[in-house]
Amino acid sequence: MSKRFKQQVKQLRKTSQLVSTNEQSKISNQTKENVRKFGFLMRRALDQGKIPAALKNASQMLDGLRTSALSPKNYYDLYMQVSDELRYLEFFLQEDIKSGKSASKLYKEVQFIEAIVPRLYLMITTGSVLIKSKEVETQDVLSDLIEMCKGVQHPTRGLFLRHYLSQMTKDKLPDKGSEYSTSNDQESLSNSIDFTIKNFVEMNKLWVRIAHQKTPGNLTKKEKEIAQKNLDIERKELKILVGTNLVRLSQLEIVTLEVYTEKVLPLLLEQINECGDPIAQEYLMEVIIQVFSDDYHISTLPSILQTISKLAEGVNIKQIMISLINRLINYSESNSDDINDKEQIFTIFSKGIGLITKERKNLPVKDLLSILNSLIQLALQLNPKQIDYIDRVLRFCYNSASESGSLSRDIIKEINNLLTTPLTKYKNVNVLLEFENYSPLIELLPYSDRRKIALKIIENVLQNSTYIRTSEKVKKLFEYVKILVQDEKDMPSESEEDEYQKTLFLAEQDAVCRLVHLLKSKDLIESFKILQVLAQKFGNSGERRIKHTVSPLVFSSLLLSFKIRDYIEDNEEEQYPLSPKKIFEFVYKIVTSLTPLFPLVSLKLLLQCAQASDKCGFEAICYEFMTKAILAYEEHVVVSKVRFEMITIISSTLQTLRIFDEENYSTLANHAGGHSSKLMVVNDQARAVCLCSYLFWIEDEEEDDDSEEDEEEDEDKEKIYFKDTKRLQGCISRAIRVAGSLMESASMFQLLFEILNVCLYFLRYEIEQINADYVNTLLELIHRKIEENNTNLSELVEPQSFNFYKSTIKHIKYCQSQEETEDLFKQINISISLDDLK
Amino acid sequence: MVLILLIGDIHIPQRSFGIPEQFKKLLVPGKIKHVLCTGNLTSKESLEYLKTLASEVHVVKGDFDDENLNFPETKTIQLENFKFGLCHGHQIVPWGDQKSLQVLQRKMDVDILVTGHTHEFTAFQLENKLFINPGTVTGAYSGFNDEIEPSFVLMDVKGSKIITYVYQLKDGDVSVEKITYTKPSEND
User: What are the Calcineurin-like phosphoesterase domain coordinates in residue numbering (chain B) (predicted)?
Assistant: First the structure.
């Protein structure tokens, strides 16, 4: 080392002050250069077998570590370089001892080195060789070294020196089954624990003191702040040196659960508590939680939580608590059976968190909620059936959050998590419905978050196909998701909604509609109660929502009416308090009240109701539904195209009904026919009128199925539900007339072909008016119409229409060839038609 | 070989909360080439779902489909050697009547007529034409048939031969039935 440099180092050591960055890298480079130089000399001396010279070189090399000028990071780099060299030295000395040299003598020799830092590094190196030689008791060497290390009190120098001690002794600590333990009794083994803890305590103190190292005096205030910040960062980088001791402890076999509980942990916690340094406390708690095993934590939870509650102000308690809880969650996931007292764990945590909130008034609400969220996860993991535990935590959350005034985005996020965690864990909303404090917590959230959570709840029900089977539970569910079925004070007005919100609204109503089908009991009376709850909720939800929700409500009701009918049929002796009639009265009120608002939806639903009441055998009610449907048509349907669609649906529905007496049926059929003939568009009119022909010849298929052999004389009478062949023919004739009046020939032919097929349909019923002659007249009409145009049919109509006619004629031919239809069809003369089709 | 899915009368959300899970597991994307849907979806989501199953999705309008969805009343599709006709069926009176369906088949000039509306699987042949109703895939409520089993149909079309697989859900179990149909030559 040059004289100038030596002096410089001396100067710096005196002031114990860090120097500026530029200066530091200069010193660092020079020192490293010296380490390289003396390291080289040391190796050469060793290779030549000159041990004293080598030790001298080593001591000179180690002089570099005496500096105070370097930042922890720069010092660390230097240390790494030196320790590489020392490893070489140790290896060489060890070989030397094997060849008969005395290790004790060597250990004594290095103690004559003047400077303390080089002396202690070399004592540790030779001490390690001495332990390996087994010339003396391991514990004697260890206690000697740990005592001697007290001589260095400079934070950085001391910390690295002790780290070197720790590294060099890690494989030599007396432990169960270790080759360096001379006796196996607990007391002598516990020396390893004492040694490690002592080293840990001292290292921690030194580490904490780094924070108080002075920064260069010539800096401005701002520069000083930056320097301090950098120091903190570099200090954090050194934390692993301290933490290694705890890892060592956790690896010792002799640290049994008992030893840990009685001795190790109290000492560690005492040190954490005493040091009062936030960075150290936070880090060390984290290390304890991570390195010791879970069952150790379970046994010592109260004292850990006690310590956490007393940690310094700047410590991130949230992170520590979550780490601790997460460890237990992971543990109980795989070792659930090993945990004896699960409730105890929860209680200890509850108390611990209570204590923390008491001791730390400044704990941010968002952090508290975050901790509680982990606690809920733990409770769900330990015993998901203990609903009251989770509910209590939710209560606590509610209280904490509601006391904090307006909620920050962080707190809102935590509340969302608190609500979602049990939802996704249980996958069964019924459990959620047992909570008392779930909906109050939802209510704390702002509008858009309430919407999101409500949709999430329903989506969860749908994804898991969870049935909700009582009206009380349904009521409770609608407390949770009420935002989807009612206007809220804080909602934006409809005109403010953007595209996204409009889509969202539809998605929400869609979800509510789907939900309805999962709200049903096996008990039909209860099911009806559920529907009444829904009717009440939906009824007050406003037009915009009712438009969507009325349909599933009505369909669920109609399904229930069938179930009630079946139940009563199967249990005739029982006086059942509910009749399908009640259901029909219930839906009648709902649907008819909506007719002016949503005529088309309402009309279609009325027809559905008519069908159901027909099946359940309620004539008057069915008649009422049909009347209301026709009235809805008359009063509210104005668009021509829609009128056609609606009247055909009315007619085709009426065609399926079998409950009416002749008079009622006839009245309804007349109305359907009358409205059909009033349609404005001729095409529509012809088709609708033609369709009405089916209303006047209706076979009762069900009766037919049941007829017994001995009732044969009645069979004919029973088979027919309604017939009025005159009006049937009237419909077809009118359709032909209307079609024939069409100016546009392609449409006209298409219609005539359709009507022809209807005639062929009725042919099998041997109706007086619709017979082969009637068909022949129609075929002639078609022929005449073609002739009038002076061209071929294929020129007049689309190919598909042409093929339609062709296959109709082919069908006639086919029927003429079949035994069962031969008689009815043989009189039809298709020869002119076959000509037309050429 | 072309695999065709016949599906319809979905009625989500008005009459059902969803397609049964047992069916969803069977209906995986990538195998089906064409979807023929008989209508009454009755939401955009159902259409989106069908589009995940195959690139070619043909849909006709059911009596409960929203006007805005703009589906045609009928549609003809040529697949391999077959001309398929697709129609919901509420337009055909009496509903589900075989003779009336035959009229539609002639009108559309098709080999195979696919319709829905009755919520009941049916398949029959008349005068060498095939008629199929895949039923309702969700087991949706129907006013004229109160014992409804969810069902759909897969068709394996190869040249002039069709193998039809009918999937039905009975008491939570999926049953499969196989029907073979061969197109008669034109001379018949």
Answer: 3-158
